[in-house]
Write a structure and sequence with these properties.
It is a single chain. Helix 9 (186-192) packs across helix 16. The protein has helices spanning 31-36, 39-42, 45-61, 68-77, 79-93, 101-117, 123-147, 152-171, 186-192, 200-217, 228-249, 252-258, 261-279, 281-291, 293-298, 303-329, 341-350, 362-381, 389-411. Helix content is 69%, strand content 0%. It has 412 residues and is mainly α. It has two domains: 44-198 and 259-411, Orthogonal Bundle (ABC transporter involved in vitamin B12 uptake, BtuC), CATH 1.10.3470; 199-258, no CATH class. Keywords: Cell inner membrane, Cell membrane, Membrane, Transmembrane, Transmembrane helix, Transport. It is found in: Cell membrane.
């Protein structure tokens, strides 16, 4: 019998669902997992993995791989790939793909050689025409994708055939080389030569710009709960330690002295692209359009116009890559840049996991492109046939995309 003054709850009817038992509090994630999930650690894992890979190459191959001049020569010879990586990256930021950049580079390689040597045009006008062709190609891509609504893959694949076809029509499908009496300007061939070096002051300014860029890029990796002042001090320390390691271990002064004009041009273009993408209204609008077109449109962003600008910028970078390819080779061969598309995309997607946690970045593209080149070159030095280069590039591209997707899924 129930005690007086205390109500006894009525028994629950048969078949009624029982109230769920109170859930246990979630167990905190292991400390190692929390540590690895920190932005500054997560964004550095891929970089550290490549450093360990190159250290393994050094142990395996010794001075055959750990040679500053040889590795700088690798970068010098692959500057067109790095610029094409930037061309791909700017359209990827906008949420689009540009499969025509390699064909545009092939076309402007032929134009930079042919218009000067075959047609006798003033070389200043030749450079203007090559860049104008890049602008026109970007406008065609942007119009097809944004105005006519053609799928970005189909549109840029079609224009890729158009550009490479135009190069074959112009050259009659043969190689173009300077003719006697119509040689390329000496300064142009010097730009493409590895033996010619820019003034050291220019390269040290480039190093300073790279240090500033690294300092600014580290802002995105600020740990949650870390106050701004202490993180600023930490960023200064990180950049200083990296510069010290490069000076002591990699002989930074020697690297600066051995850099060619093509490497200097790449750094200057990268610095300009970094400023454009990070500190201008256009860069913010482009990222907003790529992240969420509908929300960007509601926020007042003219999405179609901004994406078309991205295609134009990508076309100009691809045209510049072709011009510099002509400077380094001194001639133009059919499909000269056809093999650059895959490593260019690999470089762009590596930027999402090299000092980044899912975002496409300028310096990550350049660093990723260099890492792709060195990875393939190390295998070639070790005796692997050069035909395996495309396999390595494909593996790196798939791994970068998979890792980036995994990181985004974990944050969702």
């Amino acid at each position: 019998m129930a005690a007086r003054g205390i109500r006894t709850p009525a028994p629950a009817p048969a078949g009624a669902a029982q109230a769920p038992a109170p859930s246990r509090p979630a167990r905190p994630a292991p400390s190692l997992r929390r540590f690895l999930a920190r932005p500054e650690i997560e964004g550095s894992v891929t970089f550290v993995a490549f450093v360990l890979l190159f250290a393994g190459y050094g142990i395996w191959l010794g001075s055959s791989f750990l040679n500053i001049d040889d590795r700088l020569l690798d970068v010098h010879q692959n500057v067109p790939i790095l610029l094409l990586g930037l061309a791909v990256m700017v359209t990827l930021v906008a949420g689009a793909f540009d499969l025509s950049v390699a064909s545009m580079a092939t076309l402007t390689t032929f134009l930079s050689i042919g218009l000067a040597s075959k047609d006798g045009w003033p070389f200043g006008l030749v450079l203007v025409v090559c860049l104008a062709v890049g602008v026109a190609g970007g406008l065609i891509n942007g119009f097809l994708v944004e105005r006519l609504g053609v799928n970005t893959f189909i549109a840029t694949l079609g224009t890729s055939g158009l550009f490479v076809g135009a190069s074959k029509v112009y050259s009659s499908g043969t190689q173009l080389s300077p003719l006697p009496g119509h040689e390329l300007p000496t300064w142009f061939t010097d730009v493409g030569s590895f033996s010619q070096k820019p003034p050291a002051a220019v390269m040290w300014v480039a190093v300073a710009l790279a240090a500033v860029a690294a300092f600014a890029a580290l802002e995105r990796l600020k740990p949650a709960g870390r106050d701004a002042r202490s993180w600023t001090v930490a960023r200064v320390g990180i950049v200083a330690v990296v510069l010290l390691v490069l000076t002591v271990a990699a002989n930074l002064p020697k690297i600066v002295d051995r850099c060619s004009y093509l490497v200097a041009v790449t750094i200057i273009v990268g610095a300009g692209m970094w400023i454009l993408m990070r500190f201008t209204t256009y860069g913010r609008y482009l990222r907003a359009a790529g992240a969420n077109r509908g929300a960007a449109r509601l926020a007042g962003v003219h999405v179609q116009r901004e994406v078309m600008k991205a295609f134009v910028l990508g076309g100009v970078l691809a045209a510049l890559a072709g011009v510099l390819l002509g400077a380094s080779q001194g001639s133009a061969a059919p499909d000269v840049a056809a093999g650059f598309l895959l490593p260019a995309f690999a470089a762009a997607f590596l930027s999402t996991v090299v000092f980044s946690t899912g975002q496409f970045t300028v310096w990550g593209t350049i660093i990723g492109g260099i890492f792709v080149v060195w990875t393939s070159q190390g295998l070639i030095i070790g005796g692997v046939a050069p035909q395996w280069t495309d396999v390595v590039n494909g593996v790196v591209l798939v791994a970068a995309v998979a890792l980036s997707a995994l990181m985004k899924r974990q944050k969702a």
